Amino acid sequence: AGLGVKGDAHAGVTVQHRSRVRVDPTQPNLRQVHLIGAELHRELAGYGFTVGHGALGENVTTEGVDLHALPTGTRLRLGTDAVVELTGLRNPCSQIENFQPGLLAKVLGRDALGALVRKAGVMAIVLADGVVRAGDPIEVELPLPPYRRLERV
Q1: I want to staple 121 with a disulfide (CB 3.0 to 4.6 A). Which of 6, 16, 36, 148 is the partner?
Q2: What is the pTM of this model?
């Protein structure tokens, strides 16, 4: 709780991502856990990319939860004990091109009004720690309205 996934490069109370550390290393870490829906893996496979669980840096791969449609502050219970709170959208950077060229263009898009759409998952902080295993159920708890849509963190 308050740190992230044990052993992960982004675990910590303050920001760990290099670009954010350069700006202000004392910022709170809103990116302790990275979640991606398996639906994105299948979408990318349709474009010819081979992307497995964890390949894009995600700590948790979900199934059947529309992560991007959830509001900021949504709590997800992962398994029996762990609870994370959604803080925002992952902002994919050019490093994703090192994994597979052309991938960045597929995890970014535009909506009908031309606004940028980030599809590379959501970020969260850890409220309650616990062991999370493949196949564990996910319970969604929405915050009280008014809802705030997820923004880049």
Answers
A1: 36
A2: 0.94
